[in-house]
Amino acid sequence: MTIWTDLTGTGFELSYAPVKGTRTRVLRAGEGEAVVLLHGTSGHLEAFVRNVPDMAEHFELHALDMLGHGYTDNPGGDLRIPRYVRHVLDYLDSRGIERAHFVGESLGGWVAWLAADHPERVGRLVLVAPGGTVANPEVMDRIRTSTKAAVTSDDRDLTRRRLELLMHDPVNVSEELVDVRHAIYHRPEFVAGIDELLCLQKRENRTEDLLTPEQMARITAPTLIVWGAQNPFGDVPEAHRMQQSISGSALEIFPECGHWPQHEHADRFNKLALEFLGRSRA
Prior knowledge:
Elements: E1 12-19, E2 22-29, E3 34-38, H1 52-55, E4 60-64, H2 81-95, E5 100-105, H3 107-112, E6 122-128, H4 137-152, H5 156-164, H6 175-185, H7 188-192, H8 194-197, H9 203-209, H10 213-217, E7 223-228, H11 236-245, E8 250-254, H12 261-264, H13 266-277
Parallel strand pairs: 3-4, 3-5, 5-6, 6-7, 7-8
Antiparallel strand pairs: 1-2, 2-4
Helix pairs in contact: 4-5, 5-6
């Protein structure tokens, strides 16, 4: 089995969209209301390949390589939250999408907090181990050093270890997933922009971009927070604080799960997300 055989039977298009001059890789599948899928730091759209087949039966999916990530252009300069948000909104505009649901994982969840400032663009919000509420020096250092080591070395095992950080059970790190990320990490453009991509792992940048309780309180979109009980980048109390800050939000904690609930426990995640978004999986 490979990433792309996971998509067997699902009609999809993998293409590059010009988004305000930024060449943006996107996987589109399905029909219906739009759902935008946003990955985490140094990630790429393949983070959602186990979710696309089920979700595409009910929705029009748009899985993006975010700004400076995957095979999407890096226009230069530090990649901070307002720039990611602007890129996502420009993508919606380029497709004529006025309103979408969002599924954001880690950094993607942080970007999906755009619901606080652009409520008219957001239907429902699924935040998967989202970042953006704390600046933990130990976690930031772990992300920065492990990613840079994998990017600046040809050692494929370093890429594997970077992916294994995300999982409670390393069996979920397939050889193909390692190959996909290793190829991305060693693109000359990606190597050149790695410090700009990791700028949110510096305290001064992260602190400025952190979400305040006031911002979270402004979110009116129905919100589901999904968290792994063994998330290496955030303790469970952090998830509870997020839920308490967003009125009416729901929290689901997956046992035996790390930082990628949508990947490690795809069947459970897909059923939960579809029910929350208003569809039931047969």
